[in-house]
Fold:
Amino acid sequence: MSSTALSNMRWVGRCIKNRFLQGATILIYHRVADLPSDWQLMSVTPQHFGEQLEVLRKNYYPMSLRRLQDALQQRKIPKGAVAITFDDGYADNLHNAKPLLEKYDIPATFYVTYGCLDQKREFWWDDLDRMLLQPSSLPPSLTLTVEGKEMSWRVAEELQAPHGAGKGHHTIQTSMEGSNFTRKELYRALHTILRPMREEARNPLLAQVAQWSGSDGKSRQTHSSLTTAELQALGKGGLVEIGAHTVTHPVLSSLTLSEQRAEILGGKRGLEEKLNRLVLSFAYPYGGQTDYSNQTPDVVRDLGFVNACSNFPGIVRKGVDSFQLPRVSTRNWNGDEFSQRMRTWFPV
Ligand SMILES: [Zn+2]
Structure:
């Protein structure tokens, strides 16, 4: 076989491969803010968000999630198609993200947790961050009764200094398991315990942790969720779609189907009332495949939504389930790093 024939075959092969691989990426963000610390990796600084949007505007085809869905249905996904989404409903979505989206004329869908509107308190995972990762020192031991079982953790005395205070490795030891825990590991352990709980079970435990850590219970301005007025301002104009994200941000799979229905519908109706328009897009809280049940996507569809986003990585291609759209997590990358990541996510 001649080398020309071989290269022609390769070219045809590439075309066939590209044709089948042509797809879009849905990006997931939570926050655009300059935070003193962001161990949870939920925030992109305004500087870096602007750089990321510049990359998207220059080299890709940013489009709204709804337009992307139409393109999918018509099997005409533009090359380099990207949709931006934000989860949870932080106030910085309005104050920091929206002006940059407007500057670059890039649309986005914001999934708002209805029950967090107008709340003076932080999201529970931020409460935990404030209590465990921010204090200058922690008491020697923590004991909690979790579902009738007593659990305790001991903080090694010489290592009770704050995270980032220059001591390097801070150890917290759990007397139950006998292994050493850093502050971050204690955060992780408590996060795992608190995550699947209903609010009524989680709140008393959080109150105990707050008391133990000496946290003053004051919410940080930097961690505010949206007010109703801010939600309405966020939804104004043609670039932003507001989507639903339940009422209390539960792990849906830990609820009965009728409880799931109430959470999903309550979030939708509540937002619709505030916005005076239909809310047709949904994102599963946490969004991993085990965070909702097999039947949840059908519940979402039956309640009148037109799509739903999950939170596992993948490329959106022809034949994708519109009620389990994969998304790719973003981090606080500068424009160059973001550009490199984008190249790895796009297969063509
Ligand atoms: Zn969420």
In short: The longest strand covers residues 81-88.
